[in-house]
Amino acid sequence: MLRFCSLGSGSRGNGTLVQAGDACILIDCGFSLKDLTRRLGDAGVGLDDLSAIVVTHEHADHAQGVMRASRASGAAVMATAGTWRGMRERPGRNDRVIVAEETFSVADVAVLPVTVPHDAREPVQFLFEHRARRLGVLTDLGHPSAHVIERFGACDGLLLEYNHDREMLAQGSYPPALKRRVGGAYGHLANAQASSLLAALAPERLQVLLAAHLSEQNNTRELAAAAVEAVMDGLPAQRVLAHQHACSDWFTID
């Protein structure tokens, strides 16, 4: 059984749990140790249950709590060489430098780090496979590259970024430089971009779609949900929007 849940998703902190077999994998940790412990408890998981922490990139909302979580739990940290440099950390004895596009294993879960277009040192997102079931976790990319479309096709479960509405971003209070960064080719996915990507990823196969990393300033849950439904209407997949401040339910991929 492969299952996942969001511990929280947005610009104030991100973390996702993936469980299968003997593996309990934390993807990113943008939370304080106290906050992480509370969120894990809400998910019915303890720090000691963590098998590994895999890191997508070094930005604070994804990585600021990684090393504290590792020290408290004993879980190994796995990140690309560029992400280790970006975090200004060196891997310890039990940690690992992973290589983009090379599959590695955590217990009996196969994990593929996929290169994505984002303004970080060596960013990746992750595909997880267990007993012929595939889960994609895909946020923090500025555009749906052909490589991303190829890699993330035919997933059974998908966590996908719906970061901003283009009009809200353009008319919002962000300074011009930040607007250009967020809306640029190496920033974050707009709702329309995310739905265009979703439509290219065989959405009819999905059992679960979790829309994530919604901007609190430049998006609304209603706009994101409407963008999801523009692709998913009539399809059987469960679809849910992640929250910044609360853990989601567990979603099981059968």
Write structural notes for this entry:
The chain has helices at 33-42, 60-63, 66-73, 81-87, 146-152, 166-171, 176-183, 191-199, 221-232; strands at 2-8, 15-20, 23-27, 52-54, 76-80, 96-98, 104-106, 109-115, 124-130, 133-138, 157-161, 208-212, 238-241, 251-253. By secondary structure, the protein is of the alpha/beta class. The protein has one domain (2-253): Ribonuclease Z/Hydroxyacylglutathione hydrolase-like (Metallo-beta-lactamase, Chain A), CATH 3.60.15. The strands form two sheets. A seven-stranded mixed beta sheet has the order 6-5-4-3-2-1-14. Strands 7-8-9-10-11-12-13 form a seven-stranded mixed beta sheet. Helix 8 runs parallel beside helix 9. The protein is globular and about 45 Å long. The mean pLDDT is 98.
Secondary structure: elements and pairs:
Elements (H helix, E strand, L loop, with lengths): L1 E7 L6 E6 L2 E5 L5 H10 L9 E3 L5 H4 L2 H8 L2 E5 H7 L8 E3 L5 E3 L2 E7 L8 E7 L2 E6 L7 H7 L4 E5 L4 H6 L4 H8 L7 H9 L8 E5 L8 H12 L5 E4 L9 E3 L1
Parallel strand pairs: 3-4, 4-5, 5-6, 10-11, 11-12, 12-13
Antiparallel strand pairs: 1-2, 1-14, 2-3, 7-8, 8-9, 9-10
Give keywords.
254 residues, alpha/beta, Metallo-beta-lactamase, Chain A, 7-stranded mixed beta sheet
